[in-house]
Design brief:
The protein has 166 residues and is mainly alpha-helical. It has helices at residues 3-30, 49-54, 79-87, 89-92, 101-105, 130-137, 140-156, and strands spanning 62-69, 72-76, 118-120, 123-125. The strands form 2 sheets. The protein has a two-stranded antiparallel sheet. The protein has a two-stranded antiparallel sheet with strand order 3-4.
């Protein structure tokens, strides 16, 4: 194989890679980000998202340790938690923009109480109140499937009620 063949194959590979990247970029541009943040852009009422996983409870974060991800500012209780988040933010981000997971499962958004959190299939979900927790817990996996299904339309609709299947 001569150098001209290698260059030709490299160019074809680069062109193919660029073509394959275009649909992903278009899809990402079509994504609507809706996040439950305060007036300063802080999500989860300032609680550390990593602590839900590592400490098993809500732990207030500090503005001294913060990161921005998908349009929200996250606070952390420690530099270690910030480093964990920065390495794999999708692992720790709250689902459904940190809105009530049960509300999303019925086609809308609602605020949250961090004390209602749960980790479902390795995902952080938070509910609005005890009533939402009870309704969510009647069918956790089914409600999660519904929330996953409805979230893109709910986000696109600005959190307002959408038409659901039931």
């Amino acid at each position: 194989m001569n150098s001209r063949t290698i260059v030709s194959r490299t160019i074809r590979f680069a062109a193919l890679a660029a073509l394959l990247a275009v649909p992903a970029a278009a899809t990402a541009a079509d994504d609507v980000t809706l996040v439950n943040v305060d007036k300063s852009g802080v999500i989860l009422d300032g609680y550390d998202p990593v602590a839900f996983f590592t400490d098993g409870k809500p732990v207030m974060g500090s503005a001294a340790y913060q990161s921005t991800y998908r349009g929200a500012v996250y606070h952390f209780a420690s530099a270690d938690h910030k480093a964990l988040f920065d390495a794999t933010p999708a692992k720790y981000e709250p689902q459904f923009g940190a809105f009530c997971a049960y509300a999303v499962s019925v086609g809308r958004t609602a605020p949250i109480d961090v004390n209602t959190f749960s980790i479902v299939n390795g995902r952080l979900v938070v509910q609005h109140n005890a009533r939402a927790v009870g309704l969510w817990n009647k069918d956790v996996q089914g409600n999660l499937m519904k929330a996953d299904k409805y979230w893109p339309a709910v986000a696109k609709n600005g959190g307002k009620q959408i038409k659901v299947d039931e």
